[in-house]
């Protein structure tokens, strides 16, 4: 797109202090070529892994494209990861060079020998260990000739968050990135006049898959904020002239909890896509307050694109996760892999070509790859049902979040849905815990709306009136906030630890 739009703004970045930096397509390409030359000078070659440990920034974007342009492999990581977590990722990914910033240098200093001294710091290189990325870029000329690459070559390893096991490295090829750019630009009806806005961490697939690559595909612009701010989201959207956004359920709920500013409705956003559960009431309030339509979709790091999405044009049901996207076949299957009848619950499986329309596999994990990719289908581990009348798919729960109670299957999301109907409940999370008598017991956690002081017993009675006896939670814990991942997913394994600790205290 550089040849078509050399002087057009490609990336506009706003940091935490509301300082704005922008690069045209031509300027961005020049920075990428300089860093590519520097990486090549450091001995980084095709197939070498380069770990990015950066917040949302212009440098993240430049590094991403510089790494992949020379055939190396980007390994983006969460800046909230601990040194112990980073140690695993460094070793497992076989990283040869790290790009981070001064604030996080200490996480890596014990790995100097492993990295052979190859370490770039995003800031000014003030630490004794590390070289300034800014200086490196300025000192190098544009790379003149790039190595020959194949669309099947590996471009990135995106690690999924590990809760009950170590993170798995999802293998993404150059073809995957091109494919997702094409399919998502069509799905979102992007044009060169659009400007997508990334507020969620770019190390996650969301910003890469749904916004960056589609924008690049059609010659649109990208607005990036250093981090998500519920109170500033729409003000940033207006300031950065964004037209399309992407959120998860948690950020939507955070925005709704902030004091409403009617000026926020004066924005240029024509669409916000989102994932994960939001109530009907929250959907209505959000769209009415901010005058922007929402569109729920379904995807995961492994599927690359979104196998299911609500229609951009025509009727949509944002309580559903949509209908099959044009590039995917989707079906629901039982434990034996047989397709279930419409209306019945089944695991979502997605057809695709590994390394093209879905992930190539998991890095150095053949067992997990074979469990997930079977006979041309990707087994997601997510449960859903399909409405026979509308063909919309409705998310039920993660397969691992299905609770087995006295021989009955209980979807945590069903109990959460009932709790969320209570006038005092803002958000809920339900887990299953081992139980000697009934396989598992059901425990709920809720965040109350401002101004409410509702006792747990009232919430349990509320469930008794709406749920079968075996689905009613044994306990309801009132919390002020939930432990979450960097993209807002509730960390239910930490909630389980809470119950374990309570049980220990009672012994």
TrEMBL record:
<dbReference type="Pfam" id="PF00501">
    <property type="entry name" value="AMP-binding"/>
</dbReference>
<dbReference type="GO" id="GO:0006631">
    <property type="term" value="P:fatty acid metabolic process"/>
</dbReference>
<dbReference type="GO" id="GO:0031956">
    <property type="term" value="F:medium-chain fatty acid-CoA ligase activity"/>
</dbReference>
<feature type="domain" description="AMP-binding enzyme C-terminal">
    <location>
        <begin position="414"/>
        <end position="489"/>
    </location>
</feature>
<dbReference type="Pfam" id="PF13193">
    <property type="entry name" value="AMP-binding_C"/>
</dbReference>
<comment type="similarity">
    <text>Belongs to the ATP-dependent AMP-binding enzyme family.</text>
</comment>
<dbReference type="InterPro" id="IPR045851">
    <property type="entry name" value="AMP-bd_C_sf"/>
</dbReference>
<feature type="domain" description="AMP-dependent synthetase/ligase">
    <location>
        <begin position="6"/>
        <end position="363"/>
    </location>
</feature>
<dbReference type="InterPro" id="IPR042099">
    <property type="entry name" value="ANL_N_sf"/>
</dbReference>
<dbReference type="InterPro" id="IPR025110">
    <property type="entry name" value="AMP-bd_C"/>
</dbReference>
<keyword id="KW-0436">Ligase</keyword>
<protein>
    <submittedName>
        <fullName>AMP-binding protein</fullName>
    </submittedName>
</protein>
<dbReference type="InterPro" id="IPR000873">
    <property type="entry name" value="AMP-dep_synth/lig_dom"/>
</dbReference>
<dbReference type="InterPro" id="IPR020845">
    <property type="entry name" value="AMP-binding_CS"/>
</dbReference>
């Amino acid at each position: 797109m550089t040849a078509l739009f050399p002087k057009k703004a490609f990336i506009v970045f706003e940091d935490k202090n509301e300082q704005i930096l922008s690069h045209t397509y031509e300027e961005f390409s020049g920075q990428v070529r300089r860093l590519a030359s520097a990486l090549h000078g450091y001995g980084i070659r095709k197939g070498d892994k380069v770990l990015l440990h950066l917040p949302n920034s212009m440098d993240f974007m430049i590094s991403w494209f510089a790494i992949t342009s020379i055939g190396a492999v980007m390994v983006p990581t969460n800046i909230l990861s601990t040194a112990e977590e980073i140690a695993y990722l460094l070793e497992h990914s076989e990283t040869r060079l790290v790009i981070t910033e001064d604030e996080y240098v200490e996480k890596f200093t014990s790995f100097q020998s492993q990295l052979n001294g190859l370490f770039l710091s995003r800031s000014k290189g003030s630490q004794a260990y590390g070289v300034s990325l800014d200086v490196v870029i300025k000192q190098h000329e544009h790379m003149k000739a790039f190595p020959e690459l194949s669309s099947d070559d590996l471009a990135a390893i995106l690690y999924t968050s590990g809760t009950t096991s170590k993170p798995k490295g999802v293998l993404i090829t150059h073809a995957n990135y091109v494919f997702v750019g094409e399919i998502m630009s069509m799905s979102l009806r992007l044009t060169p006049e659009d400007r997508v806005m990334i507020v969620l961490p770019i190390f996650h697939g969301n910003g890469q898959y749904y916004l960056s690559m589609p924008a690049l595909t059609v010659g649109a612009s990208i607005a990036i904020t250093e981090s998500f701010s519920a109170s500033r989201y729409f003000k940033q959207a207006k300031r950065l002239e964004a037209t399309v956004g992407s959120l998860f359920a948690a950020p939507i709920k955070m925005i709704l909890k902030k004091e409403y500013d009617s000026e926020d409705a004066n924005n240029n956003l024509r669409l916000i896509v989102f994932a994960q559960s939001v109530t009907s009431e929250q959907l209505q309030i959000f769209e009415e307050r901010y005058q922007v339509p929402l569109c729920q979709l379904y995807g995961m790091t492994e599927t690359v694109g979104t196998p299911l999405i609500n229609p951009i044009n025509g009727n949509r049901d944002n309580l559903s996760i949509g209908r099959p996207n044009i590039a995917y076949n989707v079906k629901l299957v039982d434990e034996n892999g047989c397709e279930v009848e419409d209306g019945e619950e089944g695991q979502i499986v997605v057809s695709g070509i590994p390394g093209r329309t879905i992930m190539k596999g998991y890095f150095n994990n053949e067992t997990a790859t074979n469990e997930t990719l079977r006979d041309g289908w990707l087994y997601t581990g997510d449960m859903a049902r399909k409405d026979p009348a509308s063909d919309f798919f409705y998310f039920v729960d993660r397969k691992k979040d299905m609770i087995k109670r006295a021989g009955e299957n209980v979807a945590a999301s069903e109990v959460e849905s009932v709790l969320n109907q209570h006038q005092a409940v803002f958000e809920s999370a339900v887990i299953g815990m081992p139980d000697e008598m009934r396989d598992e017991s059901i425990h709920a956690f809720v965040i109350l709306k401002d101004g409410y002081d509702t006792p747990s017993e009232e919430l349990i009675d509320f469930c008794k009136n709406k749920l079968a006896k075996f689905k009613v939670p044994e306990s309801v814990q009132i919390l002020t906030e939930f432990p979450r991942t960097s993209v807002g997913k509730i960390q239910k394994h930490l909630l389980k630890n809470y119950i374990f600790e309570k049980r220990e205290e009672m012994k």
